[in-house]
Design brief:
single chain; 359 residues; Cobalt-precorrin-4 Transmethylase, domain 1; Rossmann fold; five-stranded parallel sheet
């Protein structure tokens, strides 16, 4: 039999039900920090190494003849080990005992309602969708890791031109070393934080200076700041649509949710990337023929891009035939094929579409 129990933040968070299962367990499975709580327990102990799967395989081999209790930090089905166990065992062979998550604990400390919070885990993975959600005025919570730390998050915010938010960092929650800090983006980007932390980002919050920090009213209508700085994009010298020009281009495109945008001669991808951040577009297709610039485009998409942004290597108009029909088109470079590109765009452009070109 296998029981999966959340332990919350500290041992004080253990439920009575979990305590009863601990008393009966033949095998305890968990991270080093949690297993240290039960150093005197007679059960066999299996610790999670850097990769969790071997420990789980060992534990499940013992489950036929032993009561196996897997102890997971926070809530086990919230970005936890529960997903792996369900895949291996199925719901019929697994008993799950819930507990509070780090995100729940942090919002309780603030305190701030969290039913509308978008949660992202950057633990061993990367996504930039959290930037888009925050830029759209949503509260965001992030589960961090040593690489994607609170100061790294703040630097990403600054690079994306998002400074009008409060960065709330909860360190060592539930312990005697607990700290909750309310910081501006510029404050957080140069600080060092405890390894055990969780981050909340509140759009439009008032990050005040001084010893006392409180969150003021959150303006959920605040959108992303227009105009990402040029130097945050990987690009060849001079080959980028400058921030001031980009702002005019984006205004002229009149972006709306659900549209398809072609970014032709994309170069670094600055226009397409910022367009993706500003509006919930159906798709942004960035077309670039030069090999080095395409590599930089991919690098920038990986850093800033969202799920709606696709890079296509090749020359326009040759590669345009396979793309979804556009509602908006930006021509940043034509490679001498402007007439042919405009003919294809005219043929494919949706009703009430718009085309913007820089000269």
């Amino acid at each position: 039999m296998v029981v999966l129990a959340g332990v919350g933040m500290t041992r004080d968070d253990l439920t009575a039900q979990t305590e009863r299962w601990i008393a009966r367990a033949d095998v305890l499975v968990g991270g080093r920090r949690v297993l240290q709580w039960f150093a005197d327990h007679p059960a066999t102990k299996i610790g999670f190494p850097a990769t969790m799967d071997p420990a789980l395989d060992h534990a499940l081999q013992l489950a036929d003849r032993n009561r196996v209790l897997v102890l997971a930090s926070g809530d086990p089905l919230f970005y936890g080990v529960g997903k792996r166990l369900l895949k291996r065992l199925g719901s019929e062979r697994l008993v799950v005992i819930p507990n509070i998550s780090a995100v729940q604990a942090l919002f309780a400390r603030i305190p701030e309602p969290w039913e509308d919070v978008r949660v992202f885990s950057l633990h061993g993975r990367y996504t930039s969708q959290w930037l888009q959600e925050l830029g759209s005025g949503r509260k965001v919570a992030i589960l961090t890791d040593p690489r994607h730390s609170p100061d790294w998050i703040a630097r990403e915010l600054a690079g994306a031109g998002i400074r009008d938010c409060t960065v709330v960092v909860g360190e060592n929650l539930g312990t005697d070393k607990e700290q909750v800090a309310f910081l501006s983006v510029d404050e957080a980007r140069n600080m060092v934080f405890a390894p055990l932390n969780v981050v909340a980002l509140l759009p439009g919050g008032d990050a005040v200076d001084g010893a006392e920090r409180r969150v003021s009213s959150v303006n959920n209508s605040v959108g992303p700041v227009l105009g990402m700085e040029d130097d945050v994009f990987a690009h060849q010298a001079g080959l980028i649509t400058k921030m001031e020009v980009r702002a005019v281009v984006l205004a002229a495109l009149q972006l709306q949710p659900g549209l398809v945008l072609w970014d032709i001669g994309s170069g670094s991808g600055s226009v397409g990337i910022e367009a993706s951040r500003l509006a919930r577009l159906q798709q942004v297709i960035a077309v670039e023929k030069d090999g080095e610039r395409f590599r930089q485009l991919q690098q920038n998409i990986q850093r800033f891009g969202f799920g709606d942004l696709v890079a296509v290597q090749g020359a326009a108009p040759d590669v345009l035939h396979s793309l979804a029909d556009p509602d908006r088109v930006f021509i940043g470079g034509s490679g001498g094929n402007l007439r042919a590109i405009l003919e294809e765009v005219t043929r494919r452009l949706q009703v009430r579409g718009r085309v913007v070109q820089t000269a």
